[in-house]
Amino acid sequence: MEINSETVVIETIFNFIKKFKNLELDIKPQSLILDELGLDSLDIVEIGIILKRDLKLEISDEVFMHETFKTVQDVINFIEKVTSNA
User: Fold this and answer.
1) The one catalytic residue among 40, 43, 61, 74
2) Tell me, what CATH number does 57's domain have?
3) Structural domain for 79, as ranges
4) Measured at the alpha carbon of residue 18, what is the angle toward residues 15 and 76, in degrees to the nearest 5?
5) In this predicted model, what pLDDT tens digit does every residue of 26-65 receive, in sequence order?
6) Which of 36, 43, 60, 75 is the most exposed place for a label (fewest CB within 10 A)?
7) Residue 20 and residue 58: Cα distance in Å, rounded?
8) Is the dihedral of CA 54, 66, 70, 85 positive or negative?
9) Residue 19 burial (C-beta neighbours within 10 Å; 0-12, 13-18, 19+)
C-alpha cells in the first residue's frame, strides 16, 4: 500500500497545531515550521511520534530530535525517505 506522505504529514501537523496550539492555519509544504507555524523542536518530536504511530514507522524518537526540519516539505521528504528504505 502506497502512503501519500504529503497528505499525512500536512494533516498531522494541521491537527497538532489545531489541538495543541488552538490555531487554524493554512499549512502548505513550503510553510516554515518555526516562523509561520510557531512550532518548536519538542513539537516536532511529538509530531514525529504521532507520524510513527499513524504510519507504523520503525524508527526511534531520537531521529526526529536530530533532524533539522525547516519546512513542512522537509518533514514530508524525511518520511518519504524513511518509508522508501523500509
Assistant:
1) 40
2) 1.10.1200.10
3) 5-84
4) 40
5) 888 899 988 888 888 888 888 888 888 888 888 887 777 7
6) 60
7) 25
8) negative
9) exposed
pLDDT above 80 (res 78) = yes
**CA torsion angle 22 34 53 86 (round to 10):** 160
Residue 48: Cβ-neighbour burial (10 angstroms; 0-12, 13-18, 19+): buried
CA–centroid distance for 3 within its chain:
14
Domain count, the chain: 1
Integer Cα distance of 47 and 41 in angstroms? 10
19-23, Cβ contacts within 8 angstroms, sequence gap of 24 or more: 20/46
